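::Encoded backbone::
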Amino acid sequence: MLKPPENILTVQNMSVEFPTLSGVVTAVRNVSFSVGREKVGIIGESGSGKSTVGRAIMRLQPPQAVVKADRLQFEDINLLTAPEEQMLSVRGRRISMILQDPKYSLNPVMTVGEQIAETVILHERVSRKEARQRTLAMLERVNIRDPQRVFDLYPHEVSGGMGQRIMISMMLIASPSLIIADEPTSALDVTVRQQVLSILDDLVTERNLGLIFISHDLNLVRSFCDRVIIMYAGRVVETIAAADLDDAQHPYTRGLLNALPSLDHPRDRLEVLRRDPAWLEN
């Protein structure tokens, strides 16, 4: 497995279990990876466990969930044993999570400006005046025209693309070391998606952050990320540099690649991914 220098996050043999009426369901099994000052993509089908991995790192699982790991280290913090009081200061300030749809992530009864400013007030104890100034500067940084007007808008008054930029502003205003972006562009059209990705890319490079980019879009991850982690049924089956994705060896990764349409090599019929039960054991 490729390991970048200066790891921000180290995950070793992490499993996530959920008790149900019919027994324990293991959603993530023995997952290991590390993240440095880079963009790491996690891809896989729906139900592969990629979002569960992101939420487990943030300690945002339901109370009944059981997270186990040999090591779950973020900078100087052991995420397995850190008390909840410490995690409250980690979330948003040192690790931020950009969720898929801002319509369901933003508070509908607060203006977007108040919600972004609240992050600074909560984590850095600054005055409301300073928080407002920093919020306006951050809105401008993510290419929102007329930040003064947008500050006073409610979530239902903004478009999907603007809502996602607002979410990025909220997650980055406290200058975290690590961002977890869970399908941040799947609800956007192609043009707006590229604008949002460009903003996110610039901010990650400018601030020297680590980024975990969770997606099901192979082509997007290939062009945007530095490394790619491929998950299947709660397991990591392959880790590879994004530029070398076409040279992937695991049959699951090959199957995903072969199922993609190509303008350069058009085919009458795309391949159907055939799953092998042995993948669950190896």
Observations:
- Residues 190-207 form the longest helix (18 residues).
- The domain at 1-94+178-282 is CATH 3.40.50.300 (Rossmann fold).
- Residues 1-5 have pLDDT under 50 and may be disordered.
